[in-house]
# Entry
Amino acid sequence: MGLLEGKRALIFGVANDHSIAWGIAQAFHREGATIGLSSVESLIEKRVRPLAASIGSTFVEPCDVQDDAQVARVFDRWRAEQGQLDILVHALAFARRDDLDGAFVDTSRDGFALALDVSAYSLVALTRAALPLMSAGASVLTLTYYGAEKVVSHYNVMGVAKAALEASVRYLAADLGPRGVRVNAISAGPVRTLAASGVAGFKGLYGEFRDTAPLRRNITIEDVGGAAVYLSSDLAAGVTGEVHYVDAGFNVLAVPTRE
Ligand code: NAD
# Structure
């Protein structure tokens, strides 16, 4: 029997088959979960629906997380189709390309607000919308990056957004814990995805990480999927408010050096 047998999961953030959200969807499917996917409208027909079909998922709904009406619509449809929600996955972020290059000090007011709205506030909005469908034992999972804690060149406003996201995980965990709903984050090492391609210098960072991380390799979306299964399953019933690293050990190094 799979670790997620009988659980119903709604996953936001599949853009294509390189997406971290897709690694999570595949792992959840393998462990027996019923899965729904939501993504931005422009990606639905060409990218997301075919992927959903490959894991037997028919719930595929567009949603721009900046729009409260669209958020409400996805959860209304989930309620009509599935009734209950056991697992919410938030695997999305956005910042303007200009703000992921150059100096952080040049971040515009608009660019700052946009990055924080899409990448951090959306976790709060999605969790609030999901709550009426959740009961004790349900869990929420988001994706973050080490740039929330330490300065990573060019990560800039996204680092600030991830810091807000990680703090939101802790506040949500405290709010929802008494209802038995858990909230956690996975801090993933660099993965070659559409979102990552917007960060200037990503290629160099990716290679440097591989050469210096304790496991001497990059991590994969399958690595993240495995940890997501654990955090979303009853195996992690006593775990909430955590940021769990899936980064080949990179975060334990004070000074990453090559041999
Ligand atoms: P991705 O490009 O595959 O996924 C990003 C998703 O965000 C896309 O599906 C996109 O449609 C969605 N999105 C952007 N704006 C949106 C909006 N307004 N409404 C709804 N959806 C929106 O990239 P990914 O790397 O898989 O990103 C998933 C998560 O993982 C992000 O939170 C990212 O910051 C995080 N993360 C990525 C890495 C990495 O190196 N790739 C490392 C650590 C954490």
